[in-house]
Design brief:
By secondary structure, the chain is α/β, with parallel strands linked by helices. Helix content is 41%, strand content 8%. α5 packs parallel to α6, α7 runs antiparallel to α8 and α8 crosses α9.
Amino acid sequence: MRLRLAGSLFAALILGGSVAVSGCKAPAAAVDAPSSQPVAAPAPAAPVSVDRASVSLEGVRVHLTIDDVPYMTERGTPMRLSPEDTLALNQRLIGVLGQHDVAASVFVVCDRLREGDGTLAVWHQAGHAVGNHTHSHAPLNRLGPEAWLADAAACHETIEGRIGADVAWLRYPYLGYGNGAEARDAATAGLAELGERTAPVTIATTEWMYAYAYRRALAADDRARADAVVADFHAHMDEALREGVAMAAEVPGRDVPQTVLVHMNELVADEIGTLVARWKAQGVVFVALPTAMADPVFAMDNHYAGTGGVSWLKRIRTAEDPPRPYWFGQTEGPIIEKWGPMPVKGEE
């Protein structure tokens, strides 16, 4: 078991402002081992109950994954940014990741791409994995397997046409695998025919809600409110990562690569450099997507039959495993209470 880290690094960095970033270099981790096949699983530890406050981040492996490229927008609303501004926002984030040698994966909503939008090419050229988030971003539970697979296939073709390379990964919209095993298994089989594999999320953060609050504060030119949202965001991300480490210590009973979900928005573009620097200073090791997905935890059975978008570390738990309150499902209410109602993000 890891011991809690002491110190006030988080407070010092928040008070000191964001880490300065400049330039753009290809992330060193992008040349990580290409195999995505699971390796042999270590013997599981005996089930235990783990308090996230008792774990540290020393040696924790993290893969950063970014949904809703080229831009996170509210459901049913047009893109807020021009193609040129969208590209510039994406390039800024790519530059930050390059400075910190982080190889991310990005998942594309294809109906948000416009004519002349070069965002996919710059992500691919910088060495990041470019994956499928379906054409319309509609959940599998609403469309059903046949229509949903057609939606995924359309985006698959679009991405391959824009980057000139195979698309190997998919992220389910809203992290929803469908309603029941039949729909889930039909979608999985259809994705295999496309040559795609699901990239599950272990750290299902509520970053998207902070991003909307941050966007509102910037639009109102309220810098003090924006700074307060940023501080809450960083605290949330720290707690989310420690919760993921604690969940893995219970089931499967060992350290696993943590796949951390954020979205393509202004908050992430502005603050991911600070987040990465803080986590690295606390011992986090960033890895590429194929390395993370080779861990046998991602080949374990999915026992979750609900339609909600939950962490993979909840999906692999069985009725016999020690019960654990789902912290990731308890975060939205307090955020709304503090920062106000959020735009409708989606529906299951």
